[in-house]
Design a protein that fits this description.
Helices cover about 40% and strands about 25% of the residues. The protein contains 12 helices and 16 strands. The strands form 4 sheets. The protein has a 5-stranded mixed β-sheet with strand order 3-2-1-7-8, sandwiched between helices. It has a 5-stranded mixed β-sheet with strand order 11-10-9-15-16, with helices on both faces. A 3-stranded antiparallel β-sheet has the order 5-4-6. It starts with a strand and ends in an 8-residue tail after the last helix. Bound molecules: adenosine-5'-triphosphate and magnesium ion (MG).
């Protein structure tokens, strides 16, 4: 019998949950493409290792980088690879639940469903990422109270207010943790005249990046290539200057949370002061971000237990209790 699957195709990370098993795949959303033939050579960790170390015609790409599942071909190929890895064959077709951004268009919705069917799914249902995140965090989504989820991912940040099993208010921006990496790269280039790679910028972000003054004093030593001489050069960065460097994308994320609060009906707004907001997504793990949002909104913010897995775990609950939770699927209400 085919095992039903839940898939979170994130811009940064892809996770797959198999019924009765839990998370069976958790890898970066990267594929290695042979540009000459168009073949997908590898995905995930294996493809990631190829970045910067491959012959020119083999390129590692993050196909979902822009935050939305827009490229039908690539989406279909990725889903096919994921289903293959999960043991799906022509004779063994599972039901699949796919987590998608709430802001997805009708055309994109149909494209994802079609991609999953062609990739071998017996049936494909979609669930909105914030709804899945709320289920993954075991929030009481069916009650008439305010459940607010802030999902800061790689390419997107989505804030949703959920009540009575539906999304009541939503704000989505195409700004996420990748933009913070890019801001760090730009800063180092401009201020110190050295070039650092994406992965180095990400390491700096995780090590000393912050959205609010926290554990300052710890500095980071960064090695890059001097743009003038072309030689390796080392600089020391302080948390203060990194915070300054990433101020713009961080402010954009905070502003979208505030805009979502502005859409909340007054009755639910009161609930929020009592119940607080829930931060999910890898980008949400930026030091001081929860504190920064709490300070700017005067509403408490808590980080969920498993920020990177929360969305797929919520969709996983839906496949474990398919008939009971199918009302959570997009278009089911
Ligand atoms: N400790 C950390 N501090 C700051 N950022 C982090 C930390 N850990 C992971 N990240 C960042 O989180 C991002 C990935 O988050 P996540 O896996 O939630 O994204 P995603 O779901 O793939 O993206 P999206 O939801 O936008 O499609 C990466 O950019 C990564 O650098
Ligand atoms: Mg995500």
């Amino acid at each position: 019998m085919a095992r039903d699957l839940a898939i979170d195709l994130g811009t940064a990370n892809t996770l797959v949950y198999a019924k009765g098993q839990g998370i069976v795949l958790n890898e970066p959303s990267v594929i290695a493409l042979n540009q000459q033939t168009g073949d997908v050579l590898a995905m995930g960790q294996e493809a990631w290792q190829m970045i910067g170390r491959t012959p020119g015609y083999i390129v590692a790409v993050r196909p979902l980088r822009q935050g939305a599942i827009t490229d039908f071909d690539v989406t279909q190929r990725m889903i096919r690879l994921l289903l293959e890895r999960a043991g799906v064959s022509r004779f063994n077709r599972p039901r699949v639940v796919i987590c998608v951004p709430s802001a997805i268009t009708e055309v994109e919705r149909r494209a994802v469903i079609e991609a999953a069917r062609r990739a071998g799914a017996a049936d494909a249902q979609l669930i909105e990422q914030p709804m899945a995140a709320a289920l993954g965090a075991y929030l009481p989504v069916n009650e008439p109270i305010a459940n607010m989820v802030i999902d800061v991912g790689g390419g997107t940040s989505e804030t949703a207010l959920i009540s009575l099993g539906g999304v009541v208010a939503l704000q989505a921006v195409r700004v996420g943790s990748f933009d913070i990496d890019a801001a760090i790269q730009t800063f180092i280039r401009r201020e110190y005249g050295i070039a650092v790679g994406e992965r180095t910028a990400e390491e700096i972000k995780v090590a000393i990046g912050s959205a609010w003054p926290v554990q300052d004093g710890v500095k980071a030593e960064v090695r890059g290539r001097d743009l003038m001489s072309g030689l390796p050069k080392t600089v020391i960065l302080s948390p203060e200057e990194v915070r300054e460097a990433i101020a713009e994308p961080v402010a954009a994320i905070v502003a979208s949370v505030i805009a979502c609060l502005g859409e909340a009906p007054p009755e639910l707004a009161h609930d929020l002061i009592v119940r607080g907001m829930h931060l999910v997504g890898g980008g949400g793990m930026l030091k001081g971000l929860a504190k920064r949002i709490a300070e700017e909104t005067s509403i408490p913010v808590t980080m969920v237990d498993a920020p990177l897995e929360c969305v797929v775990l919520g969709a996983g609950r839906c496949i474990e209790h398919y008939d009971e939770l199918r009302v959570m699927f997009m278009g089911a209400r």
